[in-house]
UniProtKB/TrEMBL annotation:
Protein name per Swiss-Prot or TrEMBL: Phospholipase A1 member A
Active site feature: 170, 194, 264
Domain Lipase span(s) in chain numbering: 29-340
GO biological process: lipid catabolic process
Top-level EC class as recorded in UniProt: hydrolase
The keyword Secreted is assigned to this record: yes
Record localization: Secreted
């Protein structure tokens, strides 16, 4: 059974209550489209109907990705074009406070069907997920059993456990984990899109998503300081922009619904974008986000033997190592809007001689009227400073780099200090030093004066 609400922390209770109140006061206004003839759309419930589960399974096939067919038995699967020789992907939504259809579901289904030749089944449990969050949590076990029984019907048609991929959003991620637990970890893959945090951070492994629930389990974390879970729950756990405060999301509560849900739903947006676009959302293992930004983790040798994981439908996210390590935290930065992907590069500055105070240098990449900046900090009595810069264009398209030595903070007089050193950069992952490019000569930087130099990088 799910964790008793009274045993959870007060903060988690408060978060869930706040989520309910804000969503109630600032509804998203999802207006479900009119379904086509002979197609079935999601149910709509309301706050007074959210007690019974009423699970429905809607099948979408490559031949008609916009038409959901209500599947109630094995005969329906065969009549509606289910192909047992293809992989099967189940999409499970999460908490729906107002009982409305998820606004993202149609686009999600289309993106999956464009990216993979597969059967897609959307699990509609709107009735069981609406109302109060704790009531939805109480329905997780019953829903997981319903889904498990449905998968038995697929197996009767010849579908293998290893060909089943569950994609669960928020609370749906833990539903997927419980289904995987019932199948003793033999399902092919589970993807958790910002798995829910309230009621699950302190849950046992049997009650939440974890790496034992499938042959490959991954999670994308985008709201660990509010609605998402903080702890790693898979073989690979992506902490996007550190796992919280996503770029482009509102920072003030006055934004209402968007303030609360934007970070949480960014995981869904990222996954859809990864399926719709070719630019990679590649991540790098590291001990912490701060260490990653400081340039302390530059490749994927440990523990992935150089196969850096990528968000999307690549087999095991592109990780080519057996057995898979578990609960590996990987980090990446993104932009504020689709397609979200950036290129990560190491930037370094080497002082010719150490200084008795901290040295800060702002580095800016310029390409096609697009700029990206980061600050390098060199501790006192040290010679080297480095950082990771995120830029939207590949390094080969970067035309110039600017360096600006920041003054020491003497407001009453101009800082005329000059430092000398060498600047170098390389795109991640840095598997060797062959891609490292340095400016041809050492540079002299005067405080507050911008130094500009052409940057020509070929074949990167």
């Amino acid at each position: 059974m799910p964790v008793n609400p009274f045993l959870s922390s007060f903060q988690e209770h408060l978060t869930s209550l706040w989520m309910f109140l804000v969503l109630f006061c600032f509804p998203p206004g999802d207006a479900p489209p009119t379904p086509q003839p002979n197609c079935t759309d999601f149910q709509n419930a309301n706050l007074l109907q959210g007690t019974s589960l009423k699970v429905r399974f809607l099948l979408f096939t490559p031949s008609d990705p916009s038409c959901g067919q209500l599947v109630e038995g094995s005969r329906d699967l065969q009549n509606f074009g289910f192909n047992a020789t293809l992989g099967t992907k189940l999409i499970i939504h999460g908490f729906r406070v107002l009982g409305t259809k998820p606004s993202w579901i149609n686009r999600f289904v289309r993106a999956v069907l464009r990216a993979a030749d597969a059967n897609v089944i959307a699990v509609d449990w709107v009735y069981g997920s609406t109302g109060i969050y704790f009531s939805a949590v109480e329905n997780v076990v019953k829903l997981s059993l319903e889904i498990s029984r449905f998968l038995r019907k697929l197996q009767a048609l010849g579908v293998s456990e290893s060909s089943i991929h569950i994609i669960g959003v928020s609370l749906g991620a833990h539903v997927g984990g419980m289904v995987g637990h019932f199948y003793k970890g033999q399902l092919g893959r589970i993807t958790g899109l910002d798995p829910a945090g309230p009621e699950y951070t302190r849950a046992s492994l049997e009650e939440r998503l974890d790496a034992r629930d499938a042959r490959f389990v991954e999670a994308i974390h985008t709201d660990t300081d509010n609605l998402g879970i903080r702890i790693p729950v898979g073989h690979v756990d992506y902490y996007v922009n550190g796992g919280q405060d996503q770029p482009g999301c509102p920072t003030f509560i006055y934004s209402g619904y968007s303030y609360l849900i934007c970070d949480h739903m960014r995981a869904v947006d990222l996954y859809i974008s990864a399926l719709e676009n070719s630019c990679p959302l590649m991540a790098f293992p590291c001990g912490s986000y701060r260490a990653f930004l400081a340039g302390q983790c530059l490749d994927c040798f440990n523990p992935f033997l150089l196969s850096c994981p990528r968000i999307g439908l690549m087999e095991e996210s592109g990780v080519k190592i057996e057995p898979l390590p578990t609960e590996v935290k990987v980090y990446l930065m993104t932009t504020s809007s689709a397609p979200y992907c950036v290129h990560h590069s190491l930037v370094e500055f080497y002082l010719e001689k150490p200084r008795h105070k901290e040295t800060n240098i702002e580095v800016t990449f310029l390409s096609c009227n697009v700029s990206s900046s980061v600050k390098i900090t060199i501790p006192k009595q040290r010679l080297q400073g480095k950082a990771i810069i995120a830029h939207s264009n590949p390094q080969r398209q970067i035309n110039q780099v600017t360096l600006k030595f920041q003054p020491s903070g003497q407001l009453w007089r101009r800082d005329r200090t000059i430092i000398a050193g060498r600047f170098c950069t390389a795109p991640l992952p840095i598997n060797d030093n062959e891609n490292m490019v340095c400016l041809p000569e050492p540079v002299n930087l005067q405080a507050s004066v911008t130094f500009v130099h052409d940057l020509k990088i070929a074949g990167v």
